[in-house]
What does this fold into?
Amino acid sequence: MPPTIPVLASAALCAALGITALQGFTVGRARTEATLARQDGRYDDARRVLTAALRAAPDAWQAWSDLALTARSAWVFQQQPGQLAQSLDAYRRAAALNPDSAVPRAELARTLMVAGRFGEAGSAYRDALSRDPHSPGLHVAYAQTLEAAQDVPGALAQYRAAGAIDANEYSQDAERRLGTP
It folds into this structure.
């Protein structure tokens, strides 16, 4: 007697859950291996492991974010200029895959800030803050970007916003340095 529709649906669900679990395991293992490789400065190894995991699970935003961090680290620490574009692309992919999270947007902003692309960094910080408006750390990072871009009033406003959420030394120092006497 052939299996009934509920039995077939149940088997399909179990197969799908098995694939999802396997993908999760693959991505988790790859992220751990990549972290260890990055700590040793082996960015090519980290990139290889993450790229393989992303072939198995192309929607794993955390792996895209780790790939972006790997590229950013290679760009900064090994002076590999081509890695900047790869880092930015991977952070954008991670953000697209996780539309509610501020994390990939904040890391994208941080990377743009380090690259001296203050206008783009500011836009990415605003995007991150729209998802997590109560993060004093995001307000401070955005303020530092505005300060680097010579936007003192904007920077002060962001430092003050951070301080209103949680008193911190960055906001207090900014008030002394940039505030009106």
Notes: Residues 11-19 have pLDDT under 50 and may be disordered.
